[in-house]
Input
Amino acid sequence: MMGDRDFRSLIKNAVESIGRELEIEIDSKDIKTIHLKEVVQCLRRSYYDRIDPKEVERRGFSDLLSGLLRKLQFGSNPKEYVIDDIKLKGQADMIADDSIILFRPTNSTPQDPKANDLLYLNACMWIYEKKDGMIIYISGNREESSFALIRDKKMFEEVVRRVRVLNDLLKEQKTPILEPSMECTDCQYYQRCYITKKNTKQTSLAEMLGFSKDD
Ligand code: SF4
Output
Protein backbone atom coordinates (compact mmCIF):
# COMPACT_ATOMS: atom_id res chain seq x y z
CA MET A 1 0.00 0.00 0.00
CA MET A 2 1.25 3.46 -0.81
CA GLY A 3 2.35 5.35 2.31
CA ASP A 4 1.13 8.87 3.04
CA ARG A 5 4.58 10.37 2.39
CA ASP A 6 4.93 8.63 -1.00
CA PHE A 7 1.49 9.83 -1.98
CA ARG A 8 2.40 13.42 -1.15
CA SER A 9 5.64 13.30 -3.09
CA LEU A 10 3.78 11.75 -6.06
CA ILE A 11 1.37 14.72 -6.09
CA LYS A 12 4.27 17.17 -5.66
CA ASN A 13 6.14 15.62 -8.60
CA ALA A 14 2.98 15.67 -10.75
CA VAL A 15 2.35 19.34 -9.94
CA GLU A 16 6.01 20.17 -10.70
CA SER A 17 6.04 18.43 -14.08
CA ILE A 18 2.63 19.73 -15.22
CA GLY A 19 3.70 23.20 -14.03
CA ARG A 20 6.84 23.02 -16.20
CA GLU A 21 4.69 22.05 -19.23
CA LEU A 22 2.32 24.96 -18.66
CA GLU A 23 4.92 27.65 -17.97
CA ILE A 24 5.00 30.55 -20.40
CA GLU A 25 8.12 29.86 -22.47
CA ILE A 26 10.71 32.60 -22.19
CA ASP A 27 13.86 32.60 -24.30
CA SER A 28 16.31 34.00 -21.75
CA LYS A 29 18.76 35.10 -24.49
CA ASP A 30 16.15 37.10 -26.42
CA ILE A 31 16.24 40.28 -24.36
CA LYS A 32 14.34 42.20 -27.05
CA THR A 33 11.24 40.17 -26.21
CA ILE A 34 9.98 40.89 -22.72
CA HIS A 35 7.03 38.93 -21.38
CA LEU A 36 4.23 40.65 -19.55
CA LYS A 37 4.54 38.17 -16.69
CA GLU A 38 8.13 39.40 -16.18
CA VAL A 39 7.24 43.05 -15.65
CA VAL A 40 4.20 42.71 -13.41
CA GLN A 41 6.26 40.74 -10.88
CA CYS A 42 9.46 41.87 -9.12
CA LEU A 43 12.02 42.79 -11.82
CA ARG A 44 14.84 41.30 -9.78
CA ARG A 45 13.01 37.95 -9.76
CA SER A 46 12.52 38.11 -13.54
CA TYR A 47 16.19 38.99 -13.98
CA TYR A 48 17.30 35.99 -11.89
CA ASP A 49 14.84 33.78 -13.82
CA ARG A 50 16.76 34.61 -16.99
CA ILE A 51 20.35 34.86 -15.72
CA ASP A 52 20.62 32.29 -12.91
CA PRO A 53 17.26 30.51 -12.51
CA LYS A 54 16.07 28.44 -9.61
CA GLU A 55 12.88 26.40 -9.93
CA VAL A 56 9.83 27.79 -8.14
CA GLU A 57 8.07 25.55 -5.64
CA ARG A 58 4.43 25.05 -6.64
CA ARG A 59 2.00 24.50 -3.79
CA GLY A 60 -0.74 22.50 -5.50
CA PHE A 61 -2.94 21.99 -8.53
CA SER A 62 -4.61 25.37 -7.95
CA ASP A 63 -1.33 27.04 -9.00
CA LEU A 64 -1.79 25.47 -12.45
CA LEU A 65 -5.21 27.01 -13.05
CA SER A 66 -4.45 29.81 -15.51
CA GLY A 67 -1.81 27.76 -17.36
CA LEU A 68 -4.36 24.97 -17.93
CA LEU A 69 -6.99 27.43 -19.15
CA ARG A 70 -4.56 29.02 -21.60
CA LYS A 71 -3.94 25.56 -23.14
CA LEU A 72 -7.63 24.79 -23.68
CA GLN A 73 -9.22 25.48 -27.06
CA PHE A 74 -10.96 28.62 -25.81
CA GLY A 75 -7.68 29.96 -24.38
CA SER A 76 -6.25 32.95 -26.24
CA ASN A 77 -3.09 33.04 -28.36
CA PRO A 78 -0.11 35.17 -27.25
CA LYS A 79 0.11 38.65 -28.79
CA GLU A 80 2.88 41.24 -29.06
CA TYR A 81 2.93 45.00 -28.53
CA VAL A 82 5.83 46.92 -30.06
CA ILE A 83 7.73 49.43 -27.87
CA ASP A 84 10.50 50.93 -30.06
CA ASP A 85 12.81 47.96 -30.73
CA ILE A 86 11.37 45.83 -27.90
CA LYS A 87 8.40 43.49 -28.10
CA LEU A 88 6.13 43.11 -25.10
CA LYS A 89 4.50 39.69 -25.27
CA GLY A 90 1.32 38.95 -23.35
CA GLN A 91 -1.23 36.19 -23.16
CA ALA A 92 -4.73 36.45 -21.73
CA ASP A 93 -6.29 33.34 -20.21
CA MET A 94 -9.46 33.84 -22.25
CA ILE A 95 -11.19 36.42 -24.44
CA ALA A 96 -14.99 36.29 -24.24
CA ASP A 97 -17.55 38.84 -25.49
CA ASP A 98 -14.69 41.13 -26.47
CA SER A 99 -13.40 41.20 -22.87
CA ILE A 100 -10.14 39.91 -21.43
CA ILE A 101 -10.61 37.31 -18.69
CA LEU A 102 -7.96 36.19 -16.21
CA PHE A 103 -8.38 33.37 -13.70
CA ARG A 104 -6.34 33.33 -10.53
CA PRO A 105 -6.26 30.82 -7.65
CA THR A 106 -6.63 32.18 -4.13
CA ASN A 107 -6.70 30.80 -0.58
CA SER A 108 -9.54 33.04 0.57
CA THR A 109 -11.95 35.41 -1.16
CA PRO A 110 -10.02 38.68 -1.67
CA GLN A 111 -11.57 42.09 -0.89
CA ASP A 112 -9.58 43.70 -3.71
CA PRO A 113 -7.68 42.39 -6.73
CA LYS A 114 -3.90 42.03 -6.40
CA ALA A 115 -1.87 44.91 -7.87
CA ASN A 116 0.13 42.67 -10.23
CA ASP A 117 -3.06 41.01 -11.52
CA LEU A 118 -4.50 44.47 -12.27
CA LEU A 119 -1.33 45.47 -14.13
CA TYR A 120 -1.46 42.22 -16.11
CA LEU A 121 -5.13 42.57 -17.01
CA ASN A 122 -4.82 46.23 -17.96
CA ALA A 123 -1.77 45.55 -20.15
CA CYS A 124 -3.62 42.67 -21.88
CA MET A 125 -6.40 45.11 -22.77
CA TRP A 126 -3.85 47.33 -24.57
CA ILE A 127 -2.05 44.42 -26.21
CA TYR A 128 -5.29 42.84 -27.53
CA GLU A 129 -6.95 46.24 -28.13
CA LYS A 130 -9.90 45.56 -25.84
CA LYS A 131 -11.62 48.10 -23.62
CA ASP A 132 -12.58 46.02 -20.60
CA GLY A 133 -11.69 42.91 -18.70
CA MET A 134 -12.20 40.86 -15.58
CA ILE A 135 -10.15 38.95 -13.02
CA ILE A 136 -11.87 35.93 -11.49
CA TYR A 137 -10.38 34.57 -8.26
CA ILE A 138 -11.25 30.97 -7.50
CA SER A 139 -10.61 29.56 -4.04
CA GLY A 140 -10.06 25.92 -3.00
CA ASN A 141 -13.58 25.69 -1.58
CA ARG A 142 -14.99 26.62 -5.01
CA GLU A 143 -15.95 30.17 -4.06
CA GLU A 144 -15.24 32.81 -6.64
CA SER A 145 -15.07 36.57 -6.75
CA SER A 146 -14.62 38.75 -9.77
CA PHE A 147 -13.40 42.28 -10.41
CA ALA A 148 -14.09 44.20 -13.61
CA LEU A 149 -11.71 46.82 -14.99
CA ILE A 150 -11.82 49.44 -17.73
CA ARG A 151 -8.46 49.99 -19.39
CA ASP A 152 -6.26 52.75 -18.04
CA LYS A 153 -3.45 54.48 -19.95
CA LYS A 154 -1.33 55.58 -16.95
CA MET A 155 -1.27 52.04 -15.58
CA PHE A 156 -0.12 50.74 -18.97
CA GLU A 157 2.59 53.43 -19.18
CA GLU A 158 4.01 52.05 -15.92
CA VAL A 159 4.21 48.59 -17.52
CA VAL A 160 5.94 50.07 -20.59
CA ARG A 161 8.45 51.84 -18.29
CA ARG A 162 9.20 48.55 -16.53
CA VAL A 163 9.69 46.79 -19.88
CA ARG A 164 12.37 49.37 -20.78
CA VAL A 165 14.05 49.09 -17.35
CA LEU A 166 14.23 45.27 -17.50
CA ASN A 167 15.56 45.37 -21.06
CA ASP A 168 18.27 47.92 -20.07
CA LEU A 169 19.33 45.93 -17.00
CA LEU A 170 19.52 42.69 -18.99
CA LYS A 171 21.60 44.48 -21.63
CA GLU A 172 23.97 45.89 -19.00
CA GLN A 173 23.91 42.67 -16.92
CA LYS A 174 22.99 44.66 -13.83
CA THR A 175 20.88 43.06 -11.10
CA PRO A 176 17.71 45.08 -10.40
CA ILE A 177 17.24 46.51 -6.91
CA LEU A 178 15.16 44.66 -4.31
CA GLU A 179 11.42 45.19 -4.57
CA PRO A 180 10.28 44.17 -1.08
CA SER A 181 6.65 43.03 -1.11
CA MET A 182 4.38 40.15 -0.09
CA GLU A 183 5.75 38.35 -3.17
CA CYS A 184 9.09 37.86 -1.36
CA THR A 185 7.57 35.32 1.08
CA ASP A 186 6.99 32.74 -1.66
CA CYS A 187 9.90 33.76 -3.88
CA GLN A 188 12.51 31.12 -4.69
CA TYR A 189 15.23 33.81 -4.46
CA TYR A 190 14.38 34.93 -0.91
CA GLN A 191 17.67 33.64 0.50
CA ARG A 192 19.66 35.22 -2.32
CA CYS A 193 18.08 38.61 -1.60
CA TYR A 194 17.88 38.72 2.16
CA ILE A 195 20.28 36.23 3.71
CA THR A 196 23.95 37.00 3.33
CA LYS A 197 26.30 34.04 3.76
CA LYS A 198 29.07 34.66 6.26
CA ASN A 199 32.26 32.66 6.65
CA THR A 200 31.90 31.64 10.26
CA LYS A 201 34.56 29.74 12.11
CA GLN A 202 33.35 27.41 14.82
CA THR A 203 34.61 28.49 18.19
CA SER A 204 33.75 27.88 21.81
CA LEU A 205 32.93 30.43 24.48
CA ALA A 206 36.10 29.40 26.43
CA GLU A 207 38.30 30.10 23.37
CA MET A 208 36.60 33.47 22.87
CA LEU A 209 37.37 34.37 26.49
CA GLY A 210 40.98 33.32 26.07
CA PHE A 211 40.99 30.11 28.18
CA SER A 212 42.83 27.05 26.95
CA LYS A 213 41.26 23.56 27.14
CA ASP A 214 43.58 22.63 30.03
CA ASP A 215 42.59 25.60 32.27
S1 SF4 B 1 12.84 37.88 -2.68
FE1 SF4 B 1 11.58 39.67 -3.15
S2 SF4 B 1 13.04 41.23 -3.87
FE2 SF4 B 1 14.06 39.24 -4.00
S3 SF4 B 1 13.73 38.54 -6.09
FE3 SF4 B 1 12.14 37.65 -4.81
S4 SF4 B 1 10.42 39.04 -4.96
FE4 SF4 B 1 12.22 40.15 -5.67
Observations:
- The helical segments are 4-22, 36-40, 43-51, 65-71, 115-127, 153-172, 190-194, 205-208.
- The pocket of iron/sulfur cluster is lined by residues 42, 44-45, 178-180, 183-184, 187, 189-190, 193 (CB under 6 Å).
- The chain has a mean pLDDT of 83.
- Residues 153-172 form the longest helix (20 residues).
